[in-house]
Structures are given as C-alpha cells and as structure tokens.
Design brief:
about 525 residues, alpha/beta, Rossmann fold, 2 domains, seven-stranded parallel sheet, binds glutamine
Length: about 525
C-alpha cells in the first residue's frame, strides 16, 4: 500500500511549494523508493490549457497530451520521470465527474454533496494515480494557500485520508514563509503560526514545516515555530533562497529531511545517495562564460510564462559551462522601432518561443528575418517555427504577403495554415494537436546530428502548421525540412543550410529537457551561441 505526503502552503502563494514538493520527492527517489507526484489545482478550469500564461505561468504539456500546471514540469525535471495528465487534478475535473455521475443516475435517491461525494471523488483520483504508477510514495501538493475557500474540499479529502491511512502512511508537510523586515533584521514567525492555526482549524496538524526565507532560518525562529506549532524542532526545516532551484534537495537533506520522513512513515531506507544529483546541481554554478539570449515574445511580463524554455536554456548552459542570461525583448517594440531590431545584434542568439494571437507577431517575423540576414543563431519553437517560415517566405522567397491564417485569414500566401483536423473544431479546451508524437529525422541534417538518431519523440501544442505546398519553393532557398511526423503529413523541423545555426521546430523541445540531460535542440542552440563570432 502506498504512503502519502500531502504538501500544503501557507502565508502566500509563489513560495516555491512546487520546488519543495519536487525536492522531497527527489530525495525519496534517491533513497531507492518508487515515487510519484500529484498537483492539485483548486480552480474550476478543467485543465490549465485555457488559462493565460502571463497570469498563471506556463501551460506544461505532458507526453499524453495533458495541458497541465507548470509544477508538473518541475516534478518531471526533478524526478527525471514522465508524468501524465492525470497527475494534475483540478476542481473542474472533480465537479465535472460528480455532476456527470449525478446525471447518469449513479447517486440515485441521494442528495449529492461536497462531503462525501466530492471528497470521495478526490480521494479516489489521488489513490488511482498513485496506485496505477505502482508508487510506494505519492507526494500530493495542494495549490493555493491554506484559508482559500476553493481548496477546502481538497484539504478535507486529505484530512480524511490521514484518518483512513493512519499516521504511519500519511504525512502533512506545510510550506510557509518567515519574512524578514529590513528595519529589525529579524525573521518573523507570526505568519507561520497563523497559517498553522488555520490548518488546525480544519483538522490538520502538520508533521513537517518547511520555512522559506531570504536567509537560513535562525535557531531562535526555528524554536519559536516549533513551540507554537507543536512540530518537533528537527521537523522545522529551513528552505532559504538559493542560487539554483536544483540546490534545494541538498539544502533539505543537510537538515535531515529524509531521516525525518523515514521516521514518521516508518520507511526502511539507509541514506539518500545525492552525489550524482549534487554534481548536476553544481554544474549550474560553474559557468566559465556567459551567453546572452534575446527571447522575443509577447508574454514578457511574468518569468513563469516560459519556465520550461528558461530551464531548457539553463540545462544546456550548465552542460556547456556557460551561464545563460535571458533578456525578454518585447516583440511589439521591434515592430515599431528599427533601433530595437538592430539591438538584437548584441545578442549571441535569438529565441522565439511559442505563442498565440496576432499582437506582436510582426515584430517576431522581423526578428526571425534579422537572424537570417545577420547570421545570428536562431531557435524557433512552435510559433517561433511558424514565424521563421513566414520570414523565409517573405525575405528569401519574395512572397511579401506571406502570413499565417491565424493572423490574416485571407492571406495571399498562407504558408502557415490550420491543421486539416482542426477545421471543424469549435471548443477551445484540449482540442489542439497535443502531446508526444514520434518524429522521423532525415540523415545528414543538423537535427540528425544533434539528436544522433532517426526517430525522436517530442511534445506539441498547436492548431496551425506549415503548408506543404510551399515546400519546393523553400527548398530552392536552402531550407531543409529535416523532421516529419504522422507518415510525412506533418513537417516538424526546418533548418537553413548556409547559416551558422537556424533551427525551428513545430514541437516544444523544452518539455523534455532535464537537468544533466538537456534537450539536443537547446544544447545545439546554446553551443552555436557560444561560438557566435559576433560576440
Ligand atoms: N499559435 C500557433 C498555433 O496554434 C502556435 C502555437 C504555439 O506556439 N504553441 O499553431
């Protein structure tokens, strides 16, 4: 029977609960246990696919085509383990299932209520996911902050699971914040005390408290938290700001995290062997050089909008001994100003990530054209692939009016057009071409050189694709289509032969990049950026 670690958050959101949950899971995995992670998102959306990444962070795509919360990406990267859409549970999914069951008549005669029907559905799903993974430990993170109305049914389900499973099979880990006021230079414990009181009010006593703070938690603060929350001193664990998120497992382990969990859950583990992981984590801090990347996009306001892209760049930098500096360049600025376009010259490479909608797209097309002309390493991802195709059509093939029908439905040269199977689609949720698809690479191409094999698998999230009618015209201009999927029906990769590095992929290579094992597309790009003679 699997054991469960429930991770809750107090004080405020954005504390890095996902990284804490992933780090704990990693430590247990390194101890030889089979581990899985679940993220609960208490919003009514069925999945993250319909949410704005500027506000909520990126939509992470799983291999099975789930559009999930970005924490799923954090778990995959820490655990080096693929998860499925079922690992992200939302209020929307739960209510949908309960209401559908009610309409079918499954509850006939009964009044359908939050307790027990909604909580039963939550418990059933959590158990199903952990059991079907064959995991010994399920780390279940509840999004939001304790005290939120919308997370109550989930916390109630966790409280019930604790009662049913007993303290040897379930554990509550609460992540809080100890703010430090400049004036008094003292770590304040009151917010932690209050958030634990809030937890207790709904019947949950935490077993472990992980305290986020700027600096390591002072002994005095630790003692105070222990006293006021009834959590033994050894289980009050400090999680201060660190240089790289990949340092967190080691930080927690140095304070005995695995030992504490093992003793609470009666786990038979010797000690985690962190040596290999520490080596990977250290590689993020050993940069000998710096690469500057211009990331041209619209969602420039929240760093979380493109976490996986950022991480993939960092993974590659760490592997090559370079620290990667990412500057977010607003494509609307490039659209308006020649100066902003020419500023791109000062970068080692230009990256255009995925995106949707017309706003700012002309600036992206200009940026791709600039990379072609100036021989600056270019990586295009999804929309960045489509934008590259438009730039090639306009600037190399002389099709001035080339566009995507996403931005100009009546484009004279629709080099990017809706996927045929998208034509009748009306609903927005979970209807794109999603998830992992096998891709065949052509030998003797840059892509083949980077991956070193013929068949690869990468993840997708798009409605539009390149129109193969323009293929011969592109090929005349030294464009190589080096990757195909769906028996040749989909073009997946384009390269420009006589360019230092111009690679664009319809897939999102960032989702499969892992620390210590960077995705080949990103690795190739960073390598080219390091070698870029412009700098
Ligand atoms: N908007 C484009 C499409 O739907 C690109 C999507 C993306 O970049 N994820 O095809």
């Amino acid at each position: 029977m699997p054991k469960y670690i429930f991770v809750t958050g107090g004080v405020m959101s954005g504390l890095g609960k996902g990284v804490t949950a992933a780090s704990v899971a990693k430590l247990l995995k390194l101890s030889g246990l089979k581990v899985t992670c679940i993220k609960i998102d208490p919003y009514l959306n069925v999945d993250a696919g319909t949410m704005n990444p500027i506000i909520h962070g990126e939509v992470f795509v799983t291999d099975d085509g789930g559009e999930t919360d970005m924490d799923i990406g954090t778990y995959e990267r820490f655990l080096d383990q693929n998860l499925s859409k079922h690992h992200n549970i939302t209020t929307g999914q739960i209510y949908k299932a309960v209401i559908e069951a009610e309409r079918r008549g499954d509850y006939l005669g009964k009044c359908v209520q939050i307790i027990p029907h909604v909580t039963d559905e939550i418990k059933k799903r959590i158990k199903q996911v952990v059991e079907s993974d064959g995991a010994e430990i399920g780390v279940v993170e509840c999004g939001g902050t304790v005290g939120d109305i919308e997370s109550l049914p989930f916390l109630e389900a966790m409280r019930q699971m604790r009662l049913e499973l007993g303290p040897l099979n379930s554990l509550f880990l609460h992540v809080t914040l100890a703010p430090e006021l400049e004036a008094v230079k003292e770590q304040k414990t009151k917010p932690t005390q209050h958030s634990v009181q809030e937890l207790r009010r709904i019947g949950i006593q935490p077993d472990i408290i992980v305290v986020r703070s700027k600096r390591p938690l002072a002994q005095q603060a630790r003692e105070k938290i222990s006293l006021f929350t009834s959590v033994p001193l050894e289980a009050v664990i400090s999680n201060p700001d660190v240089e790289s998120i990949y340092d967190v497992p080691e930080v927690l382990e140095k304070q005995g995290m695995t030992r504490v969990i093992a003793s609470r859950l009666n786990l038979k583990i010797e000690r985690s062997d962190l040596s290999e992981w520490i080596e990977v984590a250290e590689s993020f801090k050993k940069a000998k050089r710096m690469v500057n990347i211009a990331m041209v996009g619209k969602y420039v306001s929240l760093a979380d909008s493109y976490v996986s892209v950022n991480q993939a760049l960092l993974h590659s930098g760490a592997k090559l001994g370079a620290s990667v500096n990412i500057d977010w360049v607003d494509s609307e600025l490039i659209e308006k100003s020649e100066q902003a376009l020419n500023n791109l010259r000062s970068y080692n490479g230009i990256l255009i990530p995925g995106g949707f909608g017309k706003r700012g797209v002309e600036g992206k097309i200009k940026a791709a054209g600039y990379a072609i002309r100036e021989g600056i390493p270019y990586l295009g991802i999804c929309l960045g692939f489509q934008v590259a195709a438009i730039a090639i059509a306009r600037y190399l093939c002389g099709l001035e009016k080339a566009n995507s029908t996403e931005f100009d439905p009546d484009a004279e040269h629709a080099v990017i057009d809706l996927l045929p199977e998208q034509k009748g689609v009306k609903e927005i949720g979970a209807t794109m071409r999603l998830g992992g698809h096998d891709i065949m690479l052509k030998e003797k191409t840059l892509s083949f050189k980077l991956y070193g094999k013929k068949i690869i698998r990468e993840r997708h999230r798009h409605r539009y694709e390149i129109n193969q009618r323009y293929k011969p015209l592109f090929e005349e201009k030294n464009v190589i289509f080096s990757g195909y999927s769906d028996e040749g029906k989909r073009i997946e990769i384009l390269e420009i032969a006589n360019h230092p590095f111009f690679l664009a992929t319809q897939f999102h290579a960032e989702f499969t990049s892992r620390p210590g094992a960077p995705n080949p597309v990103y690795l190739g790009f960073i390598k080219a950026c390091i070698e870029n003679p412009h700098n």
